[in-house]
Amino acid sequence: MTDMERWRLILGEPATGRTGGLGGDAARQDAALEWLYGRDPELSGRGVRRTAGGGDSVVQTVDWLDEVHRLFPKETIERLERDAVERYEITEVVTNPDVLQRIEANPALLRAVLRTKHLMNPDVLAMARKIVEAVVRELVEKLKTEVRTAFSGTRSRRPSIHKNSRNFDFRGTIKANLRRYQPEERRLAIEHPKFVSRTRRHVEQWQVVLLVDQSGSMASSVIHSAVTAACLWGLPGLRTHLVAFDTEVVDLTSDVTDPVELLMKVRLGGGTDIARAVAYGASLIDSPRRSVVAVISDFYEGGNDFDLVRTVKGLCEQGTHVLCLAALDEEANPDYDRELAQRLANVGAHVGAMTPGQLAEFVAEKLK
């Protein structure tokens, strides 16, 4: 494809006089882009429209998906699918079985499934569950090492027979293999790699209560909180609770070991009553000074903000660690009500933004 054809695809039909027309696959790409982005109301508001070229019409979602998978590279396909389900809310992408069979599982599709699963019949829901399983499996594998590393013991200098890359003894390995150094190649041939052991931390039982805002804008946080809770589950010295809330409070702890089942039960949308959720979390605490309550929300309170501040203050005064974790947008930038967050910080809460791995590190430090 020439540079002029690329500019024509970017600028649309009004640029044809300068760039020339399109033919073949380029015209079909233009039609596919028009099917999706031509519905953008901002274009008509500015008097601009991406009128497609003379290629074959792309009108059905399933046909459009087939086209983009044939015509675009993987990175572009992922962006087009994400815009279809998140920017333009084309729910057919996740409620039509023919479409679900063609689309590749990814976090954007998972968020769309969570928002629209109430529209699905049982057969489509079963297919959607496979998408959830695929994405969750990938997220768990990605986070498991990060989370569990935070709870690993410190390295000792005692030799170990367990060959783990995290425990590789660099100095010991060099010392043991120095006689195999090859000066002409400036290379050390390693025959006997050395590893060290780790000391096990002896910790008292701690509680971690994750309170997750499940309003529509919090889809990513619900997903990552569910997966993080599954990774934390069963760690030595730790008892994990997972609670989802909007105006109602739902304790999902019984499903923590199965994040797929947990996510399929979550209902995104509705108002927000953080005060009610925190009060429920406080009722779960057995030993205040060995407990962490983490509230993951955008902190736009729809309930009683005075009750929320009072409950958080009471938790902090009894020695409980309260984390107010801001929602993160797609670029991992915090998006939350800073005024209410400041009031919570003033009564002793830790306020900020943490990835699941950073949350695990915080909890691990408290367990030392």
Automatic annotation (TrEMBL):
Residues annotated as signal peptide: none
Family annotation (SUPFAM superfamilies): vWA-like
Organism superkingdom: Bacteria
Pfam family, one: VWA_CoxE
Domain VWFA: start-end pairs: 205-364
Entry-linked InterPro entries: LolB (IPR050458), Uncharacterised_CoxE (IPR008912), VWF_A (IPR002035), vWFA_dom_sf (IPR036465)
Protein name: VWA domain containing CoxE-like protein
Organism from which the protein derives: Lentzea fradiae
Biological classification of the source: Bacteria, Bacillati, Actinomycetota, Actinomycetes, Pseudonocardiales
